[in-house]
Amino acid sequence: MIYQPTENLVFAVDYNRRYFNPDEVFVGGGTGSFIANKPFGDSATTSDNLGFQFNWRVFDNFEFGGWFGSTWADQKQGGDDNATVINWATTLAFPDLLKEGDMLGVVVGMPPKVVDHSIDDLEEDDDTSIHIETFYRFQINEYIGITPGFYLITDPEHDSRNDTIFVGVLRTLFQF
Q1: 29, 39 Cβ separation under 8 angstroms
Q2: Is the pLDDT of residue 5 over 70?
Q3: pTM score
Q4: Contacts of 121 (CB under 8 A, 6+ apart)
Q5: pLDDT of residue 78
Q6: Residue 76, helix vs strand vs coil
Q7: Quick one: DSSP state of residue 22?
Q8: Pick from 47, 109, 114, 144: CA 20 to 30 A from residue 31's CA?
Q9: Distance CA 171, CA 112 (A)
Q10: With contact defined as beta carbons under 8 Å apart, do 103 and 136 qualify?
Q11: Is the pLDDT of residue 30 over 90?
């Protein structure tokens, strides 16, 4: 559901229910901690997913947005346990910064994290990873955009014993 009270402000809410076959479980979409992705290992799992998003074009060259998501997972094979997984992010965008079509973007958020789990032997993610990303899209022409970027993840796997990950990326988009 999308609600746009003004031309510059948009809110969205989405819900989906998913079923994961055994050995195909990725509740956290592959971006969260191991336990957020597979809260019951490879047991068949269902999830109810609720997300809230917004984007506000504050000025022509500045947008502020973000999202919050919650997932309630239920074990469907080998038990009847459940887990709650959340994620969130805040975004800043500066469209047409140096020239039309270019864009600077910044994202700060938390990858999917288990905040409640019914299995006593499995703990929730005690620490919190933070994903920080920045990129700049150079729009070469109407068909090609090149986007160098950089991101880091603190406390990977939501575990403060893990070293921060630093990654540089270069994306190229061809539109025809």
Answers
A1: no
A2: yes
A3: 0.90
A4: none
A5: 84
A6: coil
A7: T
A8: 144
A9: 24
A10: yes
A11: no
C-alpha distances out from residue 77 to 25, 49, 80, 117, Å: 12, 20, 7, 16
- Whether residue 74 is predicted with pLDDT greater than 90 in this model: the reply is yes
The single-letter code of the amino acid at 151 is: Y
Residue 10: which of 59, 92, 61, 65 has the closest Cα?
65
Cβ count within 10 A of residue 148: 13
Q: Which amino acid is at 3?
A: Y
120 contacts: CB under 8 Å, gap ≥ 6: none
**Token pair recorded at residue 149:** 């970027």
What span, in angstroms and rounded, lies between the C-alpha atoms of 16 and 119? Answer: 24
> CA 70 to CA 27: how far, in whole Å?
11
The answer to whether the Cα torsion of 28, 31, 32, 37 is positive or negative is: positive
Q: Is the pLDDT at 24 greater than 80, yes or no?
A: yes
